Task: inverse folding
């Protein structure tokens, strides 16, 4: 293993691709006649295929959750929680993570070629909802021969997918992990998404979503979207601690270039994102977030919605997460208790805001590890 | 009085203009050789000129705080608190409100003609800080023959001006009202401002701030800025109560036009603002907010900074204001107590967020009125 790879890493990983030719009818009524899913796996699938854990990604996530791609210096996005001896212990579990449909990291999405036009889909790619992702994930499980997951786990938008698994395919998972998530967005959440979408769509380089054909990128809009989103992932406290009111230079320059450290940081994050992420995917992912509200089909009664679930639940929130505050997780916990489900809940003290779910905070790691030990023990893994 | 004007209104008001030819040296080192200030007054200045109250406006505010302009259906921005029998009772007080320098409602600012080029200043208009506004306000007071204000009062950025008055001209005010404000912005506050500025400045119609010469407006950037700012003025609760997840139409359309009520509302607010407010003024006002940190010149000791003050203080915060939370007001209160000043503080229960300071919430109106009665009584008005 190359020198920079730590011993508790899953090591070098290579994405794989699964092709599907059975049409997928989406919630919107549109149909994807064929599509590809890119995914990664870590650990070994056991003989009776009972040790698989599905990881669902969030808005800007992808299939590369752990380990290193050849040549990369940074590991996957949830490497802190996935690996030998880590919370999701790859010595015991076979971990599967995919890029969702509509994504821009290899699975079929707006940057893929539309077979009907031989041009990139762009904004013609159909909107995908959480339900559709869960269905496509179930098909990937079929493809891999996994009948039932030991656990389906996700954070943020990934948590919504995990939650939906619990009642969409109640017999295909034993445990459900919903981290830093919510049963539906609030008006404020939707509003933040719409400010970002508006910035992207009004960017003159957006070209109604067909910017690829024009060799253009709505970079300004994407940068604004990311700067704003990034702001909502961090807490006021975390930003205060990290940057405070520190200036980049000795004194105020009375100009409009970034002067405070926090401004430079946001510019850096926005710039980086705007050159690597697809704008149509961003729009599509935020709409999936906005639309998610499974209880609306059960008289707005979340307990009723969750009643069909057969799994046990692990719910985690973080004190300074103001995007999906602990109260939002507690709505899920309350509904699960009301629906007579087995639920373990932890609200983790952290100053890191929404981003905390990606960070190895000691109590979080400890309780996550303990819970996954319980999963392994109860399933005889 | 026209029929639609209520009896507790100051009625029809007409702005006035004061011209200044004495150069104003700004904190940045730049000099405004001459400038105009547009202002309004309500009530009558008494014989010994002891009943004047100065109102300082916030980011998007102006001189039109109360009453109606001829033909207008909506009154000034703080009409709920200024008028006969209202908290700032115009039967007793002479109320003065001006548009700050750098504004876009009549006072000299980026849309004014630069006498050196005979073109609009645009982004060549010098940056103005809170200290500069206080100095220009003091000059306006001189012009009107007001030696000492009964009170200087402001909300949000206006509260910062009031606070600065207390130690910049300690003998020119008897009372200081600081409402929904903060002693300085947090990193998160600065970050929100920078996202807005970046959206404006990267708009191709910005033309380095000289859009007027090109007959252009950075409408998209301004709209994004306003949608975002508006979001931070409202609380999650207030938005939930007002809009919830209500759709504009019967069902989801799977399109990117506004679908939720909250989206339409933000679009409306953003559109309206982007056609009426000047982008350079927006940039300048947000920088004045970012720079405000008077304690930095007193070893970061706010009590030491406020030590020279000779006025009594009235500080108000609102429970769901997350732009300037009650904790930020309490920093001011704590420093005032430490500096041995007379301070009255109220944290008002409200679900309206930062905007609450503009809304006639019963307890707010009651305590504001009671405090202003005390001011009148102690000053024998």
Result:
């Amino acid at each position: 293993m190359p020198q920079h790879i730590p011993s508790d890493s899953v090591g070098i990983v290579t994405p794989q691709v699964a092709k599907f030719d059975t049409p997928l009818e989406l919630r919107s009524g549109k149909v994807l006649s064929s599509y590809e899913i890119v995914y990664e796996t870590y650990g070994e699938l056991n003989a009776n295929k009972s040790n698989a854990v599905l990881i669902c990604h969030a808005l800007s996530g992808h299939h590369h959750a752990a380990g290193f791609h050849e040549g990369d210096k940074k590991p996957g996005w949830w490497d802190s929680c996935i690996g030998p001896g880590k919370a999701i212990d790859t010595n015991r579990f076979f971990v599967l993570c995919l890029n969702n449909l509509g994504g821009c990291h290899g699975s079929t999405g707006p940057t893929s070629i539309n077979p009907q036009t031989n041009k990139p889909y762009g904004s013609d790619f159909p909107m995908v909802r959480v339900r559709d992702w869960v269905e496509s994930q179930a098909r990937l499980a079929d493809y891999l021969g996994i009948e039932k997951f030991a656990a389906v786990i996700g954070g943020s938008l990934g948590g919504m997918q995990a939650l939906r698994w619990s009642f969409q395919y109640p017999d295909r998972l034993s445990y459900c992990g919903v981290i830093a998530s919510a049963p539906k967005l609030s008006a404020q959440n939707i509003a933040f998404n719409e400010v970002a979408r508006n910035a992207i769509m009004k960017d003159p380089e957006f070209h109604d979503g067909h910017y690829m054909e024009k060799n253009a990128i709505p970079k300004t809009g994407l940068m604004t979207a990311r700067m704003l989103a990034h702001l909502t992932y961090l807490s006021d406290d975390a930003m205060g601690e990290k940057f405070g009111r520190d200036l980049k230079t000795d004194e105020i320059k009375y100009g409009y270039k970034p002067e405070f450290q926090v401004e430079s940081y946001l510019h850096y994050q926005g710039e980086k994102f705007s050159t690597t992420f697809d704008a149509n995917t961003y729009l599509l992912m935020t709409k999936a977030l906005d639309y998610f509200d499974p209880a609306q089909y059960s008289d707005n009664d979340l307990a009723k919605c969750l009643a069909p679930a057969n799994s046990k639940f692990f719910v985690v929130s973080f004190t300074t997460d103001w995007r999906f505050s602990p109260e939002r997780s507690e709505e899920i916990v309350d509904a699960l208790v009301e629906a007579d489900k087995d639920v373990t809940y932890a609200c983790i003290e952290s100053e890191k805001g929404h981003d905390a779910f990606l960070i190895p905070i000691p109590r979080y790691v400890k309780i996550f590890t303990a819970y996954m030990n319980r999963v392994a023990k109860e399933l005889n893994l």
Remarks:
- The first strand of chain B starts at residue 16 and ends at 20.
- Residues 249 and 373 of chain B are 50 Å apart (CA to CA).
- The mean pLDDT of chain B is 96.
